[in-house]
Amino acid sequence: MLDHGSSTPVYAQLAALLRAQIKSGELAPGQAIPSEPEMVRQYGIARTTARRAIGALKDEQLVYTLPGEGTFVGSSPEAAPREPANLPPYRRVAADLVERIRAGRWQPERPLPSEQHLMQEYGVAKETVRRAVALLREQGWVYTVARRGSYVSPVDHWPAEG
């Protein structure tokens, strides 16, 4: 994988690895590359190292970033629009939380795990968790009590199955 003892900087090694995956087609145009938190977990690197690797690929116009959604293969959204199946991270988190609510993992009127717990579990930033919870609040799955947290809404407040 990555050789932390090499004379080649780790970010350059990671960029080379991702570049090879793009050129081989393993990462296709429009496909999301791993997020910074995913790279941190997978390769045991600092977030700034992941960011530098992504920056190198952006400089080569191999990837582009859509704020709040991710980094995708291609020189721009017009040249390589992202795949429709690639939901923004906050929507992926929200969809998973809904499935857990439906499955009864969290009962109505009981609290969701803390932001910190969800950030660690999903490997995402605080803003991503907040956007996911805000979406669930808009849809009626949860409600938030100031300085107390977010709770699963009573079943009669859940959106109708569609």
From TrEMBL:
| UniProt superkingdom | Bacteria
State the UniProt keywords alphabetically.
Answer: DNA-binding, Transcription, Transcription regulation
User: Record keywords: NADP included?
Assistant: no
Is DNA-binding found in the keyword set? yes
The UniProt entry, under Pfam families, shows: GntR (PF00392)
Q: Which SMART domains match?
A: HTH_GNTR (SM00345)
In terms of SUPFAM superfamilies, this protein maps to:
Winged helix' DNA-binding domain
Q: Where is the HTH gntR-type domain?
A: 8-76, 87-155
The protein's matches in InterPro entries, at most eight in alphabetical order, are given as:
Bact_HTH_transcr_reg, Tscrpt_reg_HTH_GntR, WH-like_DNA-bd_sf, WH_DNA-bd_sf
Q: What is the name of the protein in this document?
A: GntR family transcriptional regulator
Organism this protein belongs to: Microtetraspora glauca
